[in-house]
Write a structure and sequence with these properties.
With about 170 residues, this protein is α/β, with parallel strands linked by helices. The chain contains 4 helices and 6 strands; from the N terminus they run βαβαβαβαββ. Helix 2 links the parallel strand 2 and strand 3.
Length: about 170
């Protein structure tokens, strides 16, 4: 397994998201697309063996990260992507969000609700728009097959939001 590769951070193109004034803790959103899928169901496929290996790599990568919440959208493949991370902890449960809903409202709610580290898995085409809404900046869209992207958004009250675009696991 390859470790995280350092990549360039995205510079905000609009004013950075602002946390409530009472927020003194760091909030970190970790966004990943679902891992590689099988061809078992055209509407809601499971993860392939490669995808299951990537989900395990994600769990290993986040082993020491103190997650406070884990979100996945309504699809089986995204839920299976975060399942090894949840199983390794035992103290967290999966929260679901609607991937076709208003992502700006979802982002606003999460920014207000959470302090600490939050893992979010979603459809590849929804990850960049969700990241954009969370950081109030522009994140490079995922390309087809970029199942190894990990976008880390760090926000601290009174500081600019930091965005890191990384890779994890074996190259797809």
């Amino acid at each position: 397994m390859m470790g995280l590769l350092a990549a360039c951070a995205s510079a905000p193109t609009r004013p950075a998201a602002v946390l409530p004034a009472h927020a003194d803790a760091e909030t970190v959103f970790i966004l990943v697309p679902h891992a590689e899928t099988a061809e078992d169901d055209p509407d809601d496929p499971a993860l392939s063996p490669t995808g299951r290996a990537r989900a395990q790599a994600l769990a290993r990568q986040l082993r020491d990260v103190p997650l406070e919440a884990v979100y996945a959208d309504e699809f089986r493949r995204t839920q299976q992507t975060v399942m090894p991370t949840l199983q390794a902890r035992g103290d967290l449960k999966l929260s679901r969000y609607f991937s076709r809903g208003p992502l700006d409202q979802t982002a606003r709610q999460w920014r207000q609700q959470h302090r600490g580290h939050v893992l979010v898995a979603g459809e590849p085409e929804a990850i960049a728009p969700l990241a954009n809404a969370l950081c109030n900046c522009t994140v490079r869209p995922l390309q087809a097959g970029e199942t190894d992207r990990l976008i880390r958004i760090t926000a601290v009250a009174g500081s600019p939001v930091r965005v890191e675009d990384r890779r994890y696991g074996a190259p797809p």
